[in-house]
Design brief:
It is a single chain. This protein is an all-alpha fold and about 250 residues long. Helix content is about 75%, strand content about 0%. Helix 1 runs antiparallel to helix 2 (about 65-110).
Length: about 250
């Protein structure tokens, strides 16, 4: 629900968001320049030390940092620290701007849930909700989670009620692994129901299984004989799905 006019409320939030986006852009630009400066400073220091080291080696002198070199190193480290501190401070400032957006939204958009009826208060309602969630986990194949919910929520879920979901995911996993036996077993048990619906599912599963046997990764005389023997199963479908088989 809007506290003021629709346009004014949206405009106020949009203005605050634009400020945050602008600040993000400025911080990004400044951080990039600061990092480039820090990298350049470190690279120059590294190059100077390398040059002085080479001079010391060529002159046969001891490789010891002079007070001046130590001073340069400390000054460079201080500058790098100041640059990184500046980036950190700006980053913290952005958090404040983002937080302000939330406050502007709260100010212009009032959450009023008074008309919404309260739900899931009684034991029966909570039990129904748990059952819905449990069914969702079972459909997703997350059996351990569902069983934990059944146990902790003291839900009345028998093995018979869980079995269809378990079988469904065995079939899905089998199809993913090119194992059609679980799907064929289900189709054969439900042959009459599929017949009444005019479904070609059982026929198509047998056809797929036949093709898998025929075109196996390593075809042999035995695998071809197995495919030939398996083809006898199509006799029961010859009248109804002969066109489908030709396809």
């Amino acid at each position: 629900m809007l506290a003021g006019g629709d346009r004014e409320s949206c405009a106020a939030v949009e203005e605050e968001i634009n400020k945050v986006l602008s600040k993000f852009s400025n911080v990004n630009d400044h951080s990039q320049k600061s990092l480039e400066s820090a990298i350049s400073l470190v690279e120059k220091l590294q190059e100077d030390l390398k040059h002085q080291l080479l001079e010391a080696e060529s002159g046969g002198t001891e490789q010891v940092l002079t007070d001046g070199q130590k001073s340069v190193i400390l000054e460079s480290l201080r500058k790098v620290k100041d640059l990184t501190s500046g980036i950190s401070s700006q980053h913290k400032g952005v958090h404040g701007s983002v937080s302000k957006v939330g406050k502007v939204i709260d100010k212009n958009f009032v959450s009023d849930f008074t008309p919404v009826p309260k739900s899931f208060e009684t034991a029966q309602e909570i039990n129904t909700l748990n059952e819905v969630i449990c069914n969702h986990f079972l459909r997703q194949g997350r059996l351990p989670v569902a069983e934990a919910l059944i146990r902790e929520g003291k839900l009345e879920f028998t093995e018979e009620m869980k079995q269809p979901f378990i079988e469904m995911h065995e079939i899905i996993q089998g199809l993913q692994e090119r194992r059609l036996a679980p799907a064929l077993s289900w189709a054969e048990r439900n042959h009459e129901a599929l017949e009444k619906q005019g479904s070609a599912l059982e026929f198509n599963l047998h056809k797929m299984n036949f093709l898998l046997l025929l075109f196996s990764d390593r075809p042999t005389a035995q695998s071809r004989n197995d495919a030939l023997n398996y083809s006898k199963v199509f006799q029961i479908f010859s009248e109804k799905f002969s066109k489908g088989w030709c396809y």
